[in-house]
Design a protein that fits this description.
Nucleotidyltransferase, domain 5, GMP Synthetase, Chain A, domain 3, six-stranded mixed sheet
Amino acid sequence: MKKILLMLMIIGLLFTLTGCWGKKEIQSQIYVTGIGIDYDKDEFTVYIQAMNFANIAKQEGASSLQESVPVFIGESKGKTIQAAISKLEQKAAYPLYFGHAETILLSENAIKEKVKSVIEYIGQDPFLRYNSNFFGTTQAIKDVFNSESFFNYPSLYTVIYNPEVLNRNNFIIPVQRYNKFIATYYEPVGSFIIPGIEINQTHYSEGKDSKQIPAITGGFVISNQENKGWIDKNDLSGIKWTSNEATIIPLTLFDEKVSVLIIKPNKVIRVLKGNKPTYELMVRGRAELIQNEDNIGIDKIEKELSKKVKSDIQKTLEMGDEVKADLLNISEKAYRYHLNEWDAAEIKSFDLTSIENIDVKIKIEKSVNYKR
């Protein structure tokens, strides 16, 4: 009798255990990796990019690269972002799963007119992650999603999905994730630059066909919840010296006769006392000399390096003054640590006259050793 009761208890417990009855096979869903949002004529257009198993699987061996894999893109319109997404879900052959979305791409119009709608939608969707890559573009979103990588690798191996590699080896402007944008959007000082993606067709080719490679060419500036417009990367060149995020920055001097690598430049901001906050900006860095075709003296190269870095910073400050935005986020230091000395309005009044001094020192610590 005891054995029968024990068996009944065990069988009853088995029914309370969770199992895999509700599981979904991996091939029974469409895994969305990128979302694009455009806005035009009072209507949103939402694009999704998804990868099939051939895209997602690790590329191994040359045989896997011989044939390109098509990119899956969905497109739908709606009066709201959710309405457009719902239409995509209704017309899809399999359920759309957004939990693996890694990139959010906005059109220029969406950035100009509907950033708050984007923020509201992403904040309400339980599957979209705040650590997604965040980009904008002046080109058609569908064209950007259809851009290529090298050797027929999938889009996951482009800057759209893997910007860290570019930032680490050839820093242009910070590629920061969506959570950083949200953290700074409502701040009364400083700015956030949404990296701008454009397709480059002039530098690479395979066989006789040019490759359409996505590249960062500038950024959209958001400051104090306002869109300040698009700025070319050349006018944002000062950011790479003051972001404290750059690891390696290549630079050429003297009509490209000298090449150096700047390693981990570091900035320090000093807040100076006065009727309104003013600042001293100091940049320090070390460099490796890679090429010196005319055997120019080290002292002369170091002087030219410091001059070039200071010029880049000055150019970006002037561009910020033109669009009325603190592109280098210098005023953030006073806002964080000196609100007892000035009010927010005085700190927000940052302009070119707020910079008292720019002090740059780059030291060459290593020269190239030729192979023998």
